[in-house]
Amino acid sequence: MDTPASPRLTASITRLPAKRKTGCCDVKHCRNRRRGKSFMCSKHIMQEWRANNPVTSILNTIRDRARRRGIPFSLSLQEFKEFCATNGYNSRQHHIDRDDPTDGYHLHNIVVLGASANIAKGNRERHSPRYQAYLASRMADSRRQADNLRQAHEEAAELPY
Ligand SMILES: [Zn+2]
């Protein structure tokens, strides 16, 4: 188990043990079937698990997103836990970002950013020649995606950062 459950996540689960006779998930308004011998459905088992294991849950989310986007990833749970403790990471206030956006999610390349700082940094970075070159190499096989990005950059340029 990680640090204590976040109240925001647990508050969304209201279990009604009286529903046990019905054979469906104990969570209020949920009509999914229970999973195995559990009193909840798969979705709510996962929701409860994420609430009880916030750090592991966040790491899993980052890993999945990195995999989908083809970004290298080498963080272990132990490394990430220590990183979060050392840097005072709070999932509601901060984002985990890569210091060098052309490198992957490795212990030496991740930083904690305030959520609004992350957005501002992203807008600045998208204008840097180095990042543009990196993007071009990645997007060479997809003209359409590159066009969409260029459009986003033009819109970002109009923002007062
Ligand atoms: Zn359910």
Task: Using brief descriptors, characterize the structure shown.
single chain, 161 residues, mainly alpha, two-stranded antiparallel sheet, 7 helices, elongated, binds zinc ion
Structural features, described:
Among the domains are: 1-52, no CATH class; 128-161. The protein is elongated and about 65 Å long. The longest helix is centred in the middle third of the chain and has 16 residues, at 54-69. It is 50% helix and 6% strand. The protein contains 7 helices and 2 strands. The chain has helices at 7-11, 42-52, 54-69, 77-87, 115-125, 129-139, 143-157, and strands at 94-98, 110-114. With 161 residues, the chain is mainly α. A two-stranded antiparallel ribbon has the order 1-2. It binds zinc ion. Residues 25, 27, 30, 32, 40-41, 43-44 line the site of zinc ion (ZN). The site of zinc ion has 8 residues, from helix 2.
Q: How many strands, what sense, and barrel or not for the largest sheet?
A: 2 strands, antiparallel
| Helix count from the secondary structure assignment | 7
Helix percentage range: 40-55%
Series of secondary-structure elements, N-terminal to C-terminal: HHHHEEHHH
Q: Give me the secondary-structure category.
A: mainly alpha
Average pLDDT level = 81
**In what order do the strands lie side by side in the largest sheet?**
1-2
